[in-house]
Amino acid sequence: MGLVLWAVAVPLSRRLGLQEKVRRKPSPNAVLESFYSKHQKGPDERQLSGLAKQSDLQTRQVERWFRSRLRQDQPSLTKKFCEACWRSLFYIISYTMAMAILYNKPWTWDSRECWTGYPQQPLVPSIYVYYIMQLSFYGSLVITLPFDVKRKDHKMQIIHHAATIFLISFSYCANYIRIGTLVMIIHDASDCLLEPTKMFHYLKWRKICDTLFIVFSAVFLFSRLVIFPSKVLYNTYYYSMEIYKPFLGYYLMNGSLMILQLLHIFWSYLIVRMLGRFFVCGTMEKDLRSDSDDSEKGEEEMAQEKEAKKNGSVPSSPNSGGSYISKDTPLQLNGSSHPTNSHTKIR
């Protein structure tokens, strides 16, 4: 399935005009390559002078070599586009399937129905397929985690995937099926908007990307901070106690749901920062986007920050086109930028 999607997504990205950054390969150097293979990062100031002597190069040349070498290992835009493409396909299919299955179920509209007849609640085949599909998807995300694009919230994603897999598995074993379906459809509602937003971001279609992100933000904040606590958390904490006394499953389920809610609050904080920037200034800061990657920051940016700290000035940050724009320069919603001083440097 992944190979088929890759075969479709790569030509699609080319047809839609995805442009890759040109990456120059560093010249062969056994000493520097050996150091990089061992440490997977650039040298510090003490190691730099030693490597320069061993390789018979100047310090600046060694720094330049490591910058080029680090860029070679960064994920390409094509890889990120393909990753967002297949996730978009899954979330759209999953959300559509959930709506078709749950729209006429009584517990979708009345939370107390989640406990009617519990634990003797029959499992219909459509919900069984929906459960297996969700469990398989998040299991695949854990398996491919070492190979996926590393993002700023990488550790949070690991916690999220672990809690989600536990919740799906435990709710199935304890027959909390009705609660489980509500949790999954609430999450899919915003996830099916986030991944297409990333696709348009990689394509640099700014107006569509920013419009989708605002819609996604509204859906995310409402579903995760309003519907999830009122429809799920209140249901599992209080409604269940009206029928059954708390037992081990009660604490395990609610503990995992609270972990998810804490992650929702963390991600909501990041989204609100972006929305605040938009409504106050009419701009969005690129580095706050949820698809920003740790790998995007190479040794060149780090070297500039070190130099800026020494000089007592504010470091620059790279925009999506590879240029450096000072912190005082906002990114406009239409993708254009207007530098306010002479700190802009095109790489």
Largest sheet: 2 strands, antiparallel
Measure the end-to-end span: 38 Å
* Low-pLDDT ranges: 287-303, 313-347
Instruction: Round the Cα radius of gyration to an integer and report it.
Output: 24 Å
* Helix/strand order, N-terminal first: HHHHHHHHHHHHEE
Number of domains: 3
Gross morphology: elongated
Strand order of the largest sheet: 1-2
Pfam families: TRAM_LAG1_CLN8
Main location: endoplasmic reticulum
Membrane topology: Multi-pass membrane protein
InterPro entries: HD, Homeodomain-like_sf, Lag1/Lac1-like, TLC-dom
Structure description:
The protein is mainly α and 347 residues long. It has three domains: 27-68, Arc Repressor Mutant, subunit A; 77-288, no CATH class; 297-308 and 317-347, no CATH class. It contains twelve helices and two strands. The chain has a two-stranded antiparallel ribbon with strand order 1-2. Strand 1 (317-318) and strand 2 (324-325) form a beta hairpin. Helix 10 packs antiparallel against helix 11. Residues 287-303 and 313-347 have low confidence and may be disordered.
Characteristic terms for this protein:
Arc Repressor Mutant, subunit A, 67% helix, mainly alpha, disordered C terminus, 347 residues, 1% strand
How are the SSEs placed, and which strands pair?
Blueprint: H1 2-15, H2 30-39, H3 45-55, H4 59-73, H5 77-102, H6 106-109, H7 125-143, H8 154-173, H9 177-203, H10 206-243, H11 248-281, H12 299-311, E1 317-318, E2 324-325
Helix pairs in contact: 1-5, 3-4, 5-7, 5-9, 7-8, 7-9, 8-11, 9-10, 10-11
